Amino acid sequence: MQIGSNKIAELSKMLAEPQSIVILSHTNPDGDAIGSSLAWAEHLRKLGHKVTCILPNRYPYYLEFMPGIQDIIIFKSDKEGRAAAAVKGADIIFCLDFHTLTRLDQLGDLIDENQHAKRVLIDHHLDPSEDFDLMISYPEASSTCYLVALLIEQMWGAEHISHDMAENIFVGMMTDTGNFAFSSVTPDVFRMVSVLAAKGISIPDIHNFVYNSFTEGRARLFGYVINRKMKIFHNGSVAHMSLTEDELRRFWFQQGDSEGFVNYPLTIKKMKMSAMFTQHTDFIRVSLRSRGDIDVNIFAQRYFNGGGHKNAAGGKSFVSMEETLKHYEKCVKEYAREGML
Ligand code: 5GP
Ligand code: MN
After folding, report:
1. 165, 195, 210 — which closes off a domain?
2. Which protein residue's CA is at the shortest distance from atom 14 of ligand 1?
3. N or C: which end of the chain has fewer CB within 10 A?
4. Domain CATH code at residue 329
5. Mean pLDDT throughout 315-330?
6. Which ligand is nearest to the Cα of residue 27, counting in written order?
7. Which atom of ligand 1 is nearest to the CA of 288?
8. Distance of CA 30 from the midpoint of ligand 2 (Å)
9. Residues 250-278: tens digit of each pLDDT
10. Separation of alpha carbons 137 and 241, rounded Å
11. CB 20 within 8 A of CB 50
């Protein structure tokens, strides 16, 4: 894959002089959101720019090992107004790993107040909105981290990727490809992994940090949700699971603990689509996964006010858990009637 030369020229022009830069990523940030933000931030700082990374809310505890993560400002708990000050003074706002400002929740309102900053998108989600001045949008890319690595390689050379940047980039490439197993994985993704591996990163250590560092509560919650809450219907081809706030409390829930649960029903033969509904204070978070041709991006857009990728998407529900599950089952039927399932 190659980033278009017109985009590179435009970006070069923007970065020709030292700039005040803000890097943003999406609510409920994952390895790709954080990895791409941190690697891009480190690179821009080395070029002499002033860089602030901001996330709408906190990251999962098992990503705390990522180099530089403690310097990210968490907007939701930013009492001193550091995020607001950085956004206000920004010349360029980079938006990484999301495709519409609505994915920033309240942080999006803050961005709207700064109308003079250039907005640059670096992302791999389908259908980016018109919110951006420069769009480095490649939905066929397996992760935003891969795009950031490509960009650095093409614009400055792979020697500009440091050991820490390589670790951060690898996290996003690994997590967004289901450990290099999804159809988005190309030969060039493995070439890039080899570039990163040559920086001396420990792939087994990163793997252990990301996949084998959970709490006991998470393991027990997982057992509970699979055993007690997974409902399979539509001839064994569709599943859903749900967790209420009360259930989450019983298993000492921490942010990120239910990450990945939604994938598990897809390990069952014949399963085509899986959904996980997690109750938050003001809404229910919807996570959707599918196999092959089944498009959950369209499903999320149509029925849950969300979006994402063809095989991994999400959204929100603002009615009770019971109504949400009923709605989901009804939508599955409608989707199947239309031949989409
Ligand atoms: P997850 O289920 O891991 O939270 O999200 C899967 C995918 O769906 C991610 O690519 C994420 O960006 C997208 N996604 C999750 N929630 C939402 C949402 O509320 N709105 C939109 N547009 N995309 C979402
Ligand atoms: Mn991503």
Report:
1. 210
2. 314
3. N
4. 3.10.310.30
5. 98
6. 1
7. 2
8. 8
9. 999 998 999 999 999 999 999 999 999 99
10. 32
11. yes
User: How far is CA 117 from each of CA 53, 96, 120, rounded to the nearest angstrom?
Assistant: 15, 16, 9
Alpha-carbon gap, residue 296 to 17, rounded angstroms: 42
Q: Is 314 in the pocket of ligand 1 (CB under 6 A)?
A: yes
Determine the Cα–Cα distance for residues 237 and 239; give it in Å rounded to an integer.
7
Average pLDDT, the chain: 97
Cα of 160 from ligand 1 centre, angstroms: 31
Q: Cβ(256) to ligand 1 under 6 A?
A: no
Q: Are residues 154 and 256 in the same domain?
A: no
**Please, is 70 exposed, middle or buried when counting C-beta atoms within 10 Å of its C-beta (0-12, 13-18, 19+)?**
exposed
Answer yes or no: do 224 and 184 share one domain.
Answer: no
What's the whole-model pTM score? Answer: 0.94
Instruction: Answer whether 126 contacts ligand 1 (Cβ < 6 A).
Output: no
Please indicate, yes or no, whether residues 138 and 194 belong to a single structural domain of this protein: yes
Let me know whether 23 and 138 are in one domain: yes
CB of 315 sitting under 6 A from ligand 1: yes
Q: Domain total for the chain? A: 2
Any idea what DSSP says for residue 75? G
* pLDDT tens profile 117-151: 999 999 999 999 999 999 999 999 999 999 999 99
